[in-house]
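Margin note: ligand = magnesium ion.
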Amino acid sequence: MRSININENYFSIVHEVSKVLSRQNNIKDAFKSILKLLYSYLDIPASFIALYNPIENTLEIKESFGLLKKEKYKGVFKVGEGTVGSVFKNEIPAVIYDPKENKSFLNKMGVLNRFDFEVVFIGTVIKIGGERLGVLGVYKEKTRNLSYENEIKLLSMISILIGFAQKMNEKLEFQKRTFEEEKEILLNKIEFKTSIKEIIGVSKQINNLKNTILKVVNVDSTVLLEGESGTGKSLVAKVIHKLSNRGKEAFVGINCASIPENLLEAELFGYEKGAFSGAISQKKGKFEIADKGTIFLDEIGDTPLSLQGKLLSVIQEKEFSRLGSLETISVDVRIIAATNKKLFELVKEGRFREDLYYRLNVIPIKIPPLVERKEDIPILIDYFLKLFNEKYNKNIQLSKEALIELINYNWPGNVRELENILERLVVMNDQMIHINHLPAYIFQKVSLRRYELDNLNDKNLPSQIQNIEKKHIEMALKETGFVKSKAARLLNLTLRQLDYRIHKYNIRLQK
Ligand SMILES: Nc1ncnc2c1ncn2[C@@H]1O[C@H](COP(=O)(O)OP(=O)(O)OP(=O)(O)O)[C@@H](O)[C@H]1O
Ligand SMILES: [Mg+2]
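Resulting structure:
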């Protein structure tokens, strides 16, 4: 009987790969670990996982090991192109014994030139249930043995495991999206109360803002809202929609930054069943859902360049087609876009198309940060105090000193931060809010301004404040599972400042 000469490593690596896949819930990390295992167990110095992109009809390297970043980005293959493209097309594994000489091996990434030993390339198809998903490619040092039969078997087995994980992941992502979509449509139907009165402020800037809003509500021109995070862009977008003659129709928001690049196009324009793997049924895009209403393109500055052209043509023509379909759909939508980046700067850097910028920038509305309109702070505080007192059935007031500190603070998170702090203060307190109830990072500036403290005539205050600071730091550490960098961010401190205080107050770091 022929003895089977299979390296013991082979069993171990399959075992390790399956362990990685069952443990990791982030597919990218899992793929990275698998490629690392190939290195540790099989001495494979470079490898990659290329996945099929059905929209472009290409294979793209998604994870790699031993490849430089720039090499990885060059890894895009048409179906049938080169060895990788052929392995995918023909669904047959390939061994290239002399990739440097072999013309069918394209060496697109240019990796070969870096090895100072001879290599073979092995590619196996990643496939599950009759569906091809991609290719696993490895570079291995050439050995004397001429048959790579065992390696191919092993890599094919690993490819199946990879395919399985990828498929599960796609399904999960899809379900998550569908669920979020349904939730959003439901929320849209519940009429939200929004009127111009809900934009609080007495500053000149806010008055101008309100005047502009009233002027633009009933023209259909595109509005571009620019302002730091938390300044009220989403609020203004909803108010414009609500006051316009589209107010009874849908208001559909999409955050262009939070959706993975390859899904954004499908989200915006919808797709037909089978347009790509994972498209298990037909789905309407945001533009279609927003028909007759308003579409709110949030964080427009983060739209990938590859999609900006299509967006431009939709804005111009109000026409598009779903992915995987040739049929043109026309919609009647008003577009409101928002960005917390300076969009024109992105144009200058070549990250945003100039023509699209001008299309969007028909009516620019800039919302200034809260530090530039401090006169709005007291009235906003008043508004949120009332709101949260009502919500939590309390009657909390704010001392004058505390108010001064809140006005002096620079509010990097703008109105959202103010709203959150007030909610916390109302929830956490039962009486008047004094300076010592304020979060540590606001009050840190207080200790620098001794003269203001002295005016308060409270001899014990500094030690009281230190106690509070210590408590705040302990709370922040607890809240962040004792991850110092996170706690520092929460407290608006640098890591060094936090370390210094941990030391000073002798705070115990537990796990
Ligand atoms: N002038 C204002 N009057 C009352 N509430 C406001 C005002 N500005 C902002 N808010 C409230 O502050 C919070 C943050 O505002 P919003 O979500 O509109 O900010 P944003 O600019 O869209 O932020 P991001 O860039 O992070 O999306 C919301 O709860 C909003 O209702
Ligand atoms: Mg917003």
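The chain is about 45% helix and 15% strand.
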